[in-house]
Every structure is written in structure tokens, then in C-alpha cells.
Amino acid sequence: MTVNCLLSGRSAARVVAAALLWALCAAARADYVVQVGVFEKPRHAGEIARALHLAGLKVKAQPIIEVPGSLMIRLMVGPYPTRREAEDALVRLKALGQEGFIRKYVDEPEVKRAQVKPPAEPPPAQAAVPPPAPPVSKEPPIALEQLGAEPPPPPELDEEQLKLALAAPSPGGVPAEDLFGLGGLAVAPPSPLTGFFQSEAAYAWPETAHLSKFRQTLELSAQGRWGRWAKWRVSGRAAYDAVFDFDDYYRAAVKDDQGTQTQLRETYLDINAGNWDFRLGRQHIIWGEMVALFFADVVSAKDLREFVLPDFDMLRIPQWALRSEYFSGDFHGELVWIPYPAYDDIGVPGAEFYPYPSPPPPGFGVAFADEDKPAGDLDESGYGLRLSYIQSGWDVSGFYYSSMDVSPTFFREVVSAPSPAFIYRPSHDRIQQLGATLSKDFESMVLKAELVYTQDRWFEVTRLSDADGVVRQDVFDYAVGLEYPLPARSRLNLQVFQRWFPDHDADMSAKAVESGASIYLSTHWGPVEPQLLAVGSLNRGDWLLRPKLVWPFGRQWRLTGGVDIFGGGRDGLFGRYGDLDRVYTELRYTF
């Protein structure tokens, strides 16, 4: 069945009417998994499977392509009966530093054989005797013998044993857990209190080099169940940045804003009612999944006081929301209402990554008024609808979202006394957004795409005759990404993206078409994972380069070190931070 909806303005009645159509779908649920990756070597798949298993996640492996002398393995987390549970698993997966995406679970996919051209048949007189088949190891896979002991290096596993283990249809076969050396490990029940402690330091070298961050962050969460149909979660975060006590490089307002922080994180109640799931409280609502940048992730508010440099689990701000979801077979419907929205945290003037607007002409000073955030009235609430469907491996979704813009616009006022100056006031106004996303795996390659149309967003203009220095514009944002697995547990992600203004104002700071691209590469050198992210504008020439090393040592520790380098023209998104290059380190303990 195909349902077409057209939502406009504040037509909440249509949103409710669309929600009622969900009841027309069949009652059967689909199982979902989070696909972690596709691997050619059992040892590489086993290393990741072991780490995820020790973190308490359900790990599953499937053979998908048989190649000469090897087998392509799809590694997954799950399966889960609802997409909600799969999304929660994806959040946990990313907290462990591992990427993934949600797909429908197929129990026993057909194993494809790689097409290999057979060798030419030798003449009868020179026919060679085929070599004997290599002996199959009878030794069982290595398993952990002591609970809580550090896992030994993953064994080099026998290919034939791998095929038998993954293809075994009955409990009498060798389970994938034994295959990866996990059969002797008992997984302890989830702790009632979980979270992480993270210590971060950064040193910037602009004209005055300085220590720019020495932050300690603690996040704690507890979860439980009330009866059969309800679950709950409570979490909070506290952070202290000692850099402001070391010297007086930053203004007092920056210290007040960033020195000590406390925040209620995901705190909600889940209620299951058959095909319906309801979540009430402070929660993450993630609609986009591109690497390093945000496009279709329109609901999330973000902490941008360090630009987009922190990991997404540190950067996203939960929303107070009522979220209802309906599951039926391959269909997933989602209706959200956000009565008291959170907004992007851009910090205060004087902070390193404060998003200053374009500089005024010579002879004018600059001043900033306090941010004009909505008062919290219900007519300023946000609401939206998202419908998605999985068919033949294609995960396609469409959404509509109406809200106050989470990103502030700098409205301008020109004054002449006591001296000529521009006074900027960050403010928010209502926008409408329509969008679509898709993802599809082609055996080992993954395709992702996102498109968002935003109506009535304010953008800066440079002409002095404009009273407030901004104009309303409709804008299209779209991105396409491809991800490839490479040898040695490596992966390559390529993305191209554009912003297009159909009715572009000639005096806007932004061009009619803004284009960009990104490259992300990760690999493994022994226990260390080198990563490289390069992202930049194709028409302005500004860029960001982020090489780093990730070392997950022990079962719960992770050490990261890297460099953030900005370059290019100062009128670009990255170039304006050209004198804020920095080296940083992060140490995280997860419990």
C-alpha cells in the first residue's frame, strides 16, 4: 500500500490523521539488526565480535560471498524485534567507537560464490595431479577460561571450520560465539549503573599558543523495568574544565559558560503496547546518519562550543519529547512532539569557536546582544512525522518537521551613536522542513543519501540598506555517501554534499550553490586504529583535516590522540577558524 501525505505550515491535524493510517498495516513485526561491517578474514571479524560481546551486545555473523580461499562475512549486532531496540543498540555501538547502520534481518541469506574464470584445461599428456586438500584442524577454537580475564589475541581460524559454524542450522552446530573464541565467556548481567569518565586536553597554537581545554567529564546512567510493559532510564552529565583556572587567556564570561557544566541527559519512560512504542522524556531523536556532518538530523540540538569536533555522543543535546512509534512488518512510523525544545549551544563571544558573522565595513564597531531564545510557550513547540520502509534491502524514509530553528540567526542593527557599530542579536524563528533518507548495502559497499528542504530560514546579507541584515530563503541540502570495506579491518567513506538556494539573493554571504566533500579512512596497525577525516568546501577552498590514533586498551579503556587543522579562506565554514589549529588527547573509561 502506498500512502501519500502533504503537510504544510501548522497542519497538525494532518499529522494526527496520518498517524491513524498506521493502524491499517499488518500486525507482524520485523526483526532488525545493526550491521557493523563486512570482513574477508575471520580473524578481523573475530576481533570486533569479541569486543562487542564483552560490552554485552548480541553478536551475529553471516557468510555472504564465497571467494577463492576465503569468505566474506557480515557482522551484525542483534537481531531485535523492534527498530527502537536496534536504534538503542546503534547508540551503544557508537559509544564504543564503532560505526554501523540499521537493516532488516535476513535469517539465512544465500551465500554467493565469486565468479572466477576457470583456468585453461591442460593437454591430456600434461595433466597435473591435483594437490591433496589441506588438513582441517580438529582443535576447537580458543575460548576464555576465566571470567574477567583479558581476552587473548583472537586465533587464526580455519576457513572450513568457519563455513561450518556459520552455516549450521541447528543448535548442534558450532555457534558463532564459539567460532570467535567467546564460548567459554559468561556475560555478566547489565550493571544497574553505567556510564563513562572522559579526560580531555587540547593545546592550540594561534598567534598566542595556549592550553585550550583540560576537561573532566563524568556521565552516569541507570535503567530498569516496571512490570512487563514499561522501561525507564535516567542519566546525567557533569563536566569541569580546569583550563580557566590555569591562566586568564579567556574572558570571565567564557569561564562562566564553560568552566563547570551539569546536564540532564537521556531520562525517559518507555511503554510498549503491542505494535506501538511510546517514549516520554528527554531523549535523542536521530534522523540522519552521515559521517562527521549533519543534514537530515534536524531534530537534534547540538553543543557547538567546540564546533563539530567532539564525538557525536558528546555533541548531541537530548530533547524533551513525546515520541510514539508504530511497527508493522517492514513499515516504521514515528510521530514526535517536543513541547519545550532545546537549542544549539553556541557559547558566548570571546570563546574560540563562537560563530561570528561577517565582519562589518571599515569604520564600524561590533557588539553582541544576549541570545534571544524562545520563552518556552507551547506555540513554540516542535512536531514532526517520519515514515520509513525497508524493501529488498532499501531503507527509505520521509519526514516532515516544524519547529523553531535550533540554530540561531544573527539579526543585525546598525547604530550611529555613540559611534558607528553593528549590534548582532542571535535569535530563532519557526521553519518547516521536509526530507528523505535512504541506505542500501550492496554486499560489502554501503550507500547512504539524505535530502532536506527547509522553508523560511533566515540568512545573512551584506547590504547596509537592509534593516536587520537577513533575508528569508528556502534552501535544499543534500548529501550522498559511499562506504567501502578495505583489507586489514579498514574502511573508506566518501561523501559529497551541496546547499542550493533556488531564489538566491545576490547580496547574501552564501553563494547560490555551496558544494563540499569529505573523505574518512580508518585502518588498524596492531592494537591501534589510525583514522583520517578530511572535509572541505569545493567552491570556497576552505577545509578541515583531522588525523588521529585510537587505542582501545583493556576491556573498558580508550585513548585517543590527534590534530585538528583548519585552512583556506576566512569566508568559509572551516577557514574562519584558521588560527585555531590544535593538538588534543582523550582518555575514556566506560563502565
Descriptive account of the structure:
The chain has 591 residues and is mainly β. It has a domain at 31-114 and 146-179. It is 11% helix and 45% strand. The protein is built from eight helices and 30 strands. It has an 18-stranded antiparallel β-barrel. It has a five-stranded mixed sheet with strand order 4-1-3-2-5. The chain starts with 11 loop residues before the first helix and ends with a strand.
Quick structural summary:
This protein is mainly β.
**Structural class, from secondary structure content?**
mainly beta
Biggest sheet details: 18 strands, antiparallel, barrel
* Overall pLDDT level: 81
Tell me how many strands there are.
30
Percent range of helical residues: 10-25%
Query: How would you describe the shape?
Result: globular
Measured between the Cα atoms of the first and last residue, the distance is 46 Å
What's the number of helices? 8
As a whole number of angstroms, the C-alpha radius of gyration is: 26 Å
Strand content: over 45%
Poorly predicted regions are 1-29, 133-159, 161-179, 183-189
Key attributes of the depicted protein:
591 residues, mainly beta, five-stranded mixed beta sheet, 8 helices, 30 strands, globular, disordered N terminus
Describe the secondary-structure layout.
Elements: H1 12-20, E1 32-39, H2 42-54, E2 59-67, E3 70-80, H3 83-95, E4 101-104, E5 112-113, H4 159-167, H5 176-179, E6 193-204, E7 210-226, E8 230-241, H6 243-246, H7 252-258, E9 260-264, E10 267-273, E11 276-283, E12 301-302, E13 305-308, H8 312-315, E14 316-317, E15 319-328, E16 331-340, E17 365-368, E18 382-391, E19 394-404, E20 409-415, E21 421-427, E22 430-442, E23 445-460, E24 470-486, E25 490-500, E26 513-522, E27 529-537, E28 543-551, E29 557-567, E30 582-590
Parallel strand pairs: 2-5, 17-21
Antiparallel strand pairs: 1-3, 1-4, 2-3, 6-7, 6-30, 7-8, 8-9, 8-10, 10-11, 11-15, 12-14, 15-16, 16-18, 18-19, 19-22, 20-21, 22-23, 23-24, 24-25, 25-26, 26-27, 27-28, 28-29, 29-30
